[in-house]
Structure formats: structure tokens, C-alpha cells
Design goal:
88 residues; elongated
């Protein structure tokens, strides 16, 4: 993620009380990629991006057990109009 996406992720994590520190992978290059870490210290931190995303996903349970809409069985009625012929 880039710096703007990192800001948004940090906001969401804080809002839902999910632990993690959003920081650039290379502390000297804030324009580079960002990740979620377990702590702020660049020397001892570990990547926790997957854990943070899993915790966020668990916060929002599925609203429907069957995500695919069911198709109506049986005939469908309608009209088919033939194309108009040009009288040239």
C-alpha cells in the first residue's frame, strides 16, 4: 500500500481497536510501500499485515450465508421484436 492507503488503514484499525502500527517498509523511504507491523521499532518489528486484515474481516461477519443470488426457475415471458427493415 502507499502512504495514502496506509493513512486510511491506520484510521480503520484504530476505529475498530485492532492492534498494529502502519509504517513504511523502509523507514527512510516514506514514498515506498507500507505495511502493518506489530510495533514501531524498525529493528525488531514483524509484519502483521495479514493478521490485521484477518481481524478486520472478522469484525464484519457475512450478512448472507449464500452470497450468490438464486435464479428463478421456470419460464420467463417476454416479447421479441424483429429489426425494422430499411425501405431504400
Amino acid at each position: 500500500m502507499d502512504a495514502e492507503q496506509a493513512r486510511q488503514v491506520d484510521s480503520v484499525l484504530r476505529r475498530f481497536g485492532i492492534p498494529g502500527v502502519v509504517a513504511p517498509v523502509d523507514p527512510e523511504n516514506p514514498a515506498g510501500p507500507w505495511r502493518v507491523f506489530d510495533q514501531a521499532d524498525p529493528e525488531t518489528r514483524k509484519d502483521a499485515t495479514a493478521d490485521a486484515l484477518a481481524a478486520l474481516a472478522a469484525t464484519f461477519p457475512s450478512s448472507s450465508p449464500d452470497p450468490a443470488p438464486k435464479r428463478q426457475s421456470g419460464p420467463t415471458r417476454g416479447f421479441v421484436y424483429p429489426p425494422k427493415e430499411d425501405d431504400d
